[in-house]
Fold these 4 entries.
Entry 1:
Amino acid sequence: MADKQISLSAKLINGGIAGLIGVTCVFPIDLAKTRLQNQRNGSRIYTCMSDCLLKTIRSEGLFGIYRGAAVNLTLVTPEKAIKLAANDFFRHQLSKDGQTLTLVREMLAGCGAGTCQVIITTPMEMLKIQMQDAGRIEARRKLSGQRCGGGEVKVSLVQVKSPTALQLSRDLLKDKGIAGLYKGLGATLLRDVPFSIIYFPLFANLNSLGSRNADGSAPFYISFLSGCLAGCTAAVAVNPVDVIKTRLQSMTCGSQEDMYSGVKDCISKILCKEGPAAFLKGAYCRALVIAPLFGIAQVIYFLGAGEFVLSLLSVQKQ
């Protein structure tokens, strides 16, 4: 991802470390994004990101904003490893005698990376969304029977009883087989492939701007800002598909909330009942998640954490 030449092993370690740190920092915003995207007109509980986070903390406790984080923290390392390794592989295959890749070839490499990563991304997102949205569903059920005279809503503590990721996995495998974990695969491809097509070429071109270090690599702040800007741009561009994916992968809905049979059915019902603006739900949350996540990835690459870990392992073996 950066100009700095590092080994594949170090690159995979870097990706894993960046993913773990990034998820820990921005996961609460991702939870708000999921809940905002899933609520329909007429069943609104949250008005914005800050309102969602405050209500979640108030009703579910501080750890409520990290509901589902364990799934991401477990699977983010292989996800980043596949994405980075695939992009590196396709860029190498598409390059001619070490020459700079054209924009089209950079986009093709990103397309290949996005296609490969859904092997991990789809089940990870499937499990994460069920756990993130459990609090919203429970809150809606509680509030539906608590309207007093004059239409006021009496808010009480929400006791969220959501299954663990292992229980969800076991139930899905038992009822629907491996296909249960890959529900929404088509929508995930429609999101992740365009994201990678936009992100990787945009980052590479932004990272080539500005001054260079003595060794020819990009300065830390250039890589950091390039990662943030490229990630933010790609995230907002594919947000409509992210809304569709989130709705399709949600197995439990509140009363009077639609279920969807596929991508076309989801698009049709959202347009009919909520209008085009619904496809931008959670866009700023997603930008706030992705921008620092990829900015952090560039920090890890700049610091060379993967190479440092490998050097420690080699010393211990000696």
Entry 2:
Amino acid sequence: MALDLANLASVRAFATAFLSSEPRLDILIHNAGISSCGRTREALNLLLRVNHIGPFLLTHLLLPCLKACAPSRVVVVASAAHCRGRLDFKRLDRPVVGWRQELRAYADTKLANVLFARELANQLEGTGITCYAAHPGPVNSELFLRHVPGWLRPLLRPLAWLVLRAPRGGAQTPLYCALQEGIEPLSGRYFANCHVEEVPPAARDDRAAHRLWEASKRLAGLGPGEDAEPDEDSQSEDSGAPSSLSTTHPEEPTVSQPYPSPQSSPDLSKMTHRIQAKVEPETQLS
């Protein structure tokens, strides 16, 4: 099924086609992304559009199906680069020019991913949908190498094979967030190496997360009736329950089973039969 995350009309067309042809959606993993604008010159921040705004819109459009299939999960593939991110809401959608701006903009979009998972978990509390940000680790993919000058690639590829994870290894943490039982109390948190990790203050700022949410709605062209508000029934049932996310975490929820390392969790690959999907997109891990 064709999907161009840089084109909001394409995102809407994909969601319409999916909802009309697929009866279930149990797990939504946002794995597609870019690290550079390449030779494209747009009058907008292409990195933000592909890495955040497109997935943000797609999530909203698929929420009815996710709610109908609850318990369900949303996994946003983020990156440790979020630690270097800083969101300037006055220049959020400005075009990015040059490799220095692209490196900065990539980190900003990864911070947006972490804040999006956090705010989405808050918005959907009580609906049966849980959300996670997952760092795959440094993965040997074409995400960055395809933008390296041709003469430099033969030198970098052997080094990449030595120090970077294979895509199968990079997939373990997103799969863990998608399939591991018992991590529902950790909805909205950031995972790396198949366990929850603390994030810097900028990545757990609930006011910034909500501000990003509102800005993303505007950039995605979402109307008032297309927000991710939970159903009234679920809201009333959980109105007195504290949120699992707060700026500080005095008592971290725990999972009954120990966290496996990516190297010691081969069973995750065997669990993928639980994902109901007809298409396996050839996307790159970020």
Entry 3:
Amino acid sequence: MAARTDRPPATGCSQTPEKMAGPWTLSLLCGLLAATLAEATLSPAAVLTLGPEVIKEQLTQKLEDHNATTILQQLPLLSAMREKPARNFPLLINLMNTILKSIIWLKVTSASILQLQVQPSTSYQEIMVKIPLNMVAGLNTPLVKTIVEFHMESEAQALVRVERSDSGPSRPVLRECSSSGSSLRIRLLHRLSILVNSLAKKVMNLLVPALPKMVKTELCPVIEAAFDDMYADLLKLVKVPIPLGPGGLQFDPLSPTIEKNVIQLNLEAKVLDSKGKVTIRFNSSETSLTVPVPANAAFSLIVRQDVVNAMVATLLPSEKIVILLDYVLPELARELKSSLEKISKQIADRLDNTQMVETVTQEVPYLHLTPGSTKAAQQIVMDIFATNRDRRPLFTLGIEANSEVQFYSEGDRLMLNFNGISFDRIQLMNSDIDIFNPELLKDVISKILQAELLPNQNSKLRTGIPVSIVSALGYEEAHWSSAQGAVLLIPYS
């Protein structure tokens, strides 16, 4: 099958020697037309949207993989306090040295990262990520036999924005990571003697400027690396081919955008054959892809109608089905004979117990996706043979039919099922008997197709289409629904 290419529309603005009159007018019109075309919205083949819940969960996991809490436990509190930002104030330096001489060691004894917050930034197309930090520090001093403990609460903040590069594709990055003194809370867990409490208070005052600097220098690089790994894993997940019989469907990221507190990935799609070769490529299209997504959805995947049809075409290629009607569907064989008797009893009598029905789906079913309702249109050719020995059919019918399509899910699989069949048109294409009105056979032909064609097609759809992103993001099941020109996937909460 030839690969599909999407070309930008031509403006048709070329000047020839015969048409040089009014060059300024022509240039103005060309400029306006080009601007209009540039502003036209092109819809990608698919859109993956990650909500704040998924961003929080995935980044939290990556922070754990990067041992972020271990980094907190290894913060060099004592050495940071030994830095002398007040070197121009000798009295303050002497005070600090007196305090430090009273400390044997000072370190973080336990640390944890609390629930992350993902919020819209005040700037357009930016997300604010807040990472609350919870720590307990221990102080050992000869002034008391027990460990003096502090409870420290702080917060790292960073911005996620899309960075565009001349050397590579644009991507979301986490930048401007910092921690401010305003988010820092330090308190003494247990009160001891007046002397020890006074020492502890002085230590806490020294930690107020030191801790935010340590978070920025020690933890922020880990947070940035964790976000980079999260996005890299997401791209790998997006590119995992969806198996479709001998071939598959693969998505590739085009460009990311940020809207409020979600990251949106625009995707192109391509159909692969059994050897992994691209047979069809779906790029951006002028077809509208405006699909409402519930605001609380952890993530969503919107797949354009032409991509869905390519998936169905792979699962349901054109085929021929031949049955001996009297053996497989005896009641319908008798009903067909009875209907033919109303046209010609002589012709009906030619049908024997080996009468044969040959059904060919000329084209693969085409799905028309609309909100709450989807129909599959099919073009069918049906030959009726009086016996299985005949080479020529009694007659041939051309049928334009459609079926209701049901979308549902089983685990992370998209399931489809064709329900019922109705005729938009039925016509007599060839007849070995006199010309007759095929509408007279409409009911029985519909029953034959419903008993023969639909079960065959549904059996091929029964395995479903696995979408591994559902389970990979930590969800057991998802909900599929049809929208205007697309299907929508959101996970069950």
Entry 4:
Amino acid sequence: MPKAKERLRSLFRRNKRRNRPTTYPKGEDTKEEQEPASQEEPPEASKKDEMEIMPNPPGEGEMPSYFHVGALAKELLITGFKIGAWKMECTTRTDTDLYLSTFGEGYPTMDSVFGGMEVFKEIDKYHTSLGWFTNNEVLSEIGVHGTNFESRWYGLLKSTIGTKDGVTFKTKLKCGFERNPVKVELVLPLYKEPLLLGYVVVTPVDHWLLGYRAAYNLDDKGFDKHALCLGYNNDRTEVGLKLENFQDLRGSIFQRIGESWAFALKSNLYSSENVKQFAFGIQYDFHNGTLLKAKVREDSRTGFVYQTKIGENIDVMYHLAFDGVDPVGGAHRIGVSWDFHC
């Protein structure tokens, strides 16, 4: 169940970022990360909201993707820090291995509600799903995957039907292939999708990864984005560098200290628009399903996250953020997240 559960949660979080309300109260925390959360999101999606979707860890024998560069630092510095007023998720598996998943949240305020539900079924190397969201969108997926001659491949047909302002339909094909030390992934627009997306990564030696990613806009007939990456990760130390459009250079460092402590640093090292971004965070792992994290940004915005488990099937997360320059009179945020899985 864990891989299916994470896939369902990623589906909701992807579409939640794209469609949830984005009107913030005055003085609210609106800082943005510079990077889309997944291969399927257009580059402009990163301008709307801070990335909160983390790539799932590679499965046994799988290669990391372009989006795993800097993933440990992003997990420490982002997960939990963008919780709205409330959020609940629930994933259930029936006796026939049919997965039912729902989520709802108030973001960024109590009454700005967004949610959805999905049905997911996997049979051997095939899977299909159907999801509905409160923004009047219906999403369907049909996927297949396999392994041959020490190679892995997969294909995923994704379609969206919108009914908010008339009926709209769009579809795209996501496909990938990997054979160590090379991995390639493409998102091909089939109907009413403007972007052709793709990346290629290589692992020349253990723990190191080199990659290139591009986004080509078919409507504008030009590249929206191209980027190079370099990453190192041995699970205790992680270093990541990304150069986007040969104009913006970003870097991150993650380091474990002993068995419980870790810290992360993320910054744009060079920006063509002279935008300064910096974040530093620490975490303590109690090794019983409980994490305590703290983070501070270049504008003194400070946040804390407490993450724990209630039994085996309930994950809980609490978030508190305030203005470090004016802790009493500045903007505040409090958020609660509950995740049920059974």
